[in-house]
Every structure is written in structure tokens, then in C-alpha cells.
Amino acid sequence: MYIYLPIKIIPSNIADEQTHSVFMDAFIQNNRLDHVSQVMGYHPDYLRNFLTTQNYLLREDGPLPYDYRHYIAIIAAARHHCIYLVKLHEQEFLLRNGNPEWLKGIAYAPRKIQDLYEINKILAHRPWLINKEHMMKLLKTPEPWSLSELMHAIILLTHFHSLCSFVYGCGINAELDIDGFTYSRSSSSSSDTDSNSENNEVGETSNHSHAQQMSRDEGVGLEALMEKMKKLNEMSLEETSQEELLKRFHSVEHQSAEITVPNSKKSTPRSELMRYVLDDEFSYTDFVTQDKVNEVPTFRACDYSWDDHGFSLANRLYTDIGNLLDDKYTMAANMTYYTMGDNREVDTSSFRRAIWNYIHCMYGIRHDDYDYSEVNQLLERNLKAYIKTLTCYPERLQKKDYDGVMREFKHSEKVHVNLMIMEARQQAELLYALRALNRYMT
Ligand SMILES: CC(C)C[C@H](N)C(=O)O
């Protein structure tokens, strides 16, 4: 198993004041300064939003009992074989007086939780398959979920599926005191980690000259990228017909389907994980290559958007969660330092938008006011492959993928990209779930 921590964690004693104060809050909430918070500490404003939401979902008043919440986190994280999150929430589950029997596996959990498994699986890998029948099955059974409970459960599932992407993307591993956690590193990944930590003083230097040379060789350097961004920003909005925009969307979709993500893991997942997993073979398939019989049409963001529809439904069923998620999405999508590698005063909005919309595109979601040719202009194939792996098959990401992509970016910028991947993915899953719930209710 490849577990590594490529990004040197910011030591809290030297972090700036703002970071330090968020770290203190994280410590008070979690009784530890967990590795996720430490890596997110590169972006303290975002970290604050993330922690507020996660704390609300797990620890504040809400529809579901506390043990259920952690158990749902476990089954969500197990879909991506994320031992780090599974172990963490097994511990929290026990601290919340959860029944230890349930930790023997999903078959030992109450019927009601087992019923949730189908949507756990679908949301994690092919959220476009969620429909109102799935909702009905949960809401109308002998042991029904209430609408609010279901809303809470869905948000927990999507939160933890997408957190797996962040965990793998940043190579986060377990804190030493997590019970029962032992991991093996392959010799190559361990030596990678060592050489990496030597290079990275507080994680914020990157191997620039080497990277620049490599990128120049490949012709995809930062300079070329910034040039393209500048051109796009200067371009006046040319009139492009809806047909042409649609064609460009489909072309990006098809190109994405051509990127295959090898599964090079040698070891099979551990039995401690597999006891929470049913139907392990079920994984992401490209949206465009679905079987034609049950074909699902493209999700048009203008017909069901987060701002106009999802947000208020979430808020209605689970007080305030819409606001919290909205703050988090807005922060993740808009956060900028106007930098790129060593360059300052750069308008990075087109690059960030391309990443966000590319992720939605892989889930069949189309924003029809967006020109998808920008995705092709700004995201080189290597970066697309990285985004696809981390979004759709995070457990397959390897350290060399992290090192090989965005070579001239600083570590904090790679973390920034990973944050966007996590949030855009969560939003995509949630949009499908909320639309299905809405269809059930109307
Ligand atoms: C992901 C990064 C390229 C973001 C960039 N550093 C910015 O401040 O917008």
C-alpha cells in the first residue's frame, strides 16, 4: 500500500498567527491536531470553513445520533479503501458509545444503516445513477429514514467520499496513536518520502529549477500556461452558438474518457476495510461510456443548480447546512493569492474555473454558460489525468503522480488544487442526490 506524506506539515509553533488560531480551534474540536487539519493549514481561511462544517456534521445538534454519524463516515471512506479515515472514525464511534459489534462489519450494523449502502456505493462512484426510487426505498420501509435524517446521511456520505480524495492527494497517513494502525510502505515509497522531506523545508520550497527544466522539455511550462490565461482573460466574449458550446463540452467529455487510470496496487485491500465494503468491483465508469440502454442525460446545471435549488433544499431539511456548505464551496472556488509558482499578481480565475468545471464534466454535469475549450487550453493531459485519478479513483494515486504533476507549483498550491477537487466532487455528488430527493418530494 502506498501511504506517504509528501507535504511537510506546518509545525504549529512557526505557523503565522491566523493559522495558529485555527489550529487551536481544530485541537479543541478534535482533541488532536489531525493531519488533515495540519495540511489544510496552508489555507487557514478555508480550514476554518471546513472545520466548522465538519464539526457541525459530526458533533453539533442534528437529525442523526452521534454513533450513526461516525459509522456513516466509516462506510463512506471504506468505499475508497481509506484506512486513515476508517480508523479515525472507528475510534470516534467508540468514544460516542457506539456498539463495538458494528465494527465487525456492515453486516453487524442495524438494518437501517445497511439500507443506506446502495446510495453510498452509487454516490461514491456513479452519482448520476441516483434516482427518486432510491430515495423512496429509504423513506418508505419498515424502518424508514426521515427526510432530515436522510439529508444528514447524504451530506456525510458525500463529505467523506470527497475527503478521501483530499487524503490521498496529500498523502496523509495516520497519527501514531490511532489504534490498530500499522502500515507497510514499499521500499521505493519510503525512500521517496525520505528524500522528499530533505528537500522540503517547511514544505514550501519546490524543486523549481529541475521542474522548470523538465516542463520546458515537455513544452508545458508555467510560463506557457500563464500566457494562455492572460489571452483568455483579455479575449472579449465572442458569440459562440449553443450548439458549438455543447460540442466543446462533449469533446472534453470524450477526451476525458480516453484517459485510463491504471490500478497498479499490488496488495489487496485489508480485511479490516473490506468488512465495510459490499460490491467492491463497483467503481467509476466514464459518464460518456454508459450503456446506451439506461443512458442518463447530461445534467444541466441551469436546470438544477446549487445556488438556486440545492442550497435551499439542504437548508430546509437540515437547518443551516446549506449556508455552511455554501460558504465552503464559495471559499474553495474563489480563494486566490494571485500567485502561481514564483509569479505574483496573476489572475488565476480561468485556471481554477477550468479545474472545477472539468470535475463536474466527468460526472456529466454541464454549465452551459461555460466554454469548455478553456479546459483543453489550460489543463494539460498530465494534469487532467491527475484530476481524474484523484476525483474518481483516489485510492489509485501514487506519490509519483503527485510529484509529476504541476511541477512548478508550490506545495501549498498543490494542496489548493486538491481542495478544489474535493469540493467540486462533493458538490457534484450532492447535486445528483438533492435533485433525486427533490423529484421524490414533488
Ligand atoms: C492553484 C493555484 C494555482 C492557485 C493560485 N496560487 C492562486 O492564488 O490563485
UniProtKB/TrEMBL annotation:
<dbReference type="GO" id="GO:0016684">
    <property type="term" value="F:oxidoreductase activity, acting on peroxide as acceptor"/>
</dbReference>
<feature type="compositionally biased region" description="Polar residues">
    <location>
        <begin position="202"/>
        <end position="214"/>
    </location>
</feature>
<dbReference type="GO" id="GO:0005634">
    <property type="term" value="C:nucleus"/>
</dbReference>
<dbReference type="Pfam" id="PF04636">
    <property type="entry name" value="PA26"/>
</dbReference>
<dbReference type="InterPro" id="IPR029032">
    <property type="entry name" value="AhpD-like"/>
</dbReference>
<dbReference type="GO" id="GO:1990253">
    <property type="term" value="P:cellular response to leucine starvation"/>
</dbReference>
<dbReference type="InterPro" id="IPR006730">
    <property type="entry name" value="Sestrin"/>
</dbReference>
<feature type="region of interest" description="Disordered">
    <location>
        <begin position="187"/>
        <end position="215"/>
    </location>
</feature>
<keyword id="KW-0560">Oxidoreductase</keyword>
<protein>
    <submittedName>
        <fullName>Sestrin-1-like isoform X6</fullName>
    </submittedName>
</protein>
<keyword id="KW-0963">Cytoplasm</keyword>
<dbReference type="GO" id="GO:1901031">
    <property type="term" value="P:regulation of response to reactive oxygen species"/>
</dbReference>
<dbReference type="GO" id="GO:1904262">
    <property type="term" value="P:negative regulation of TORC1 signaling"/>
</dbReference>
<dbReference type="GO" id="GO:0005737">
    <property type="term" value="C:cytoplasm"/>
</dbReference>
<dbReference type="GO" id="GO:0016239">
    <property type="term" value="P:positive regulation of macroautophagy"/>
</dbReference>
<dbReference type="GO" id="GO:0070728">
    <property type="term" value="F:L-leucine binding"/>
</dbReference>
<dbReference type="GO" id="GO:0071233">
    <property type="term" value="P:cellular response to L-leucine"/>
</dbReference>
<feature type="compositionally biased region" description="Low complexity">
    <location>
        <begin position="187"/>
        <end position="200"/>
    </location>
</feature>
<comment type="similarity">
    <text>Belongs to the sestrin family.</text>
</comment>
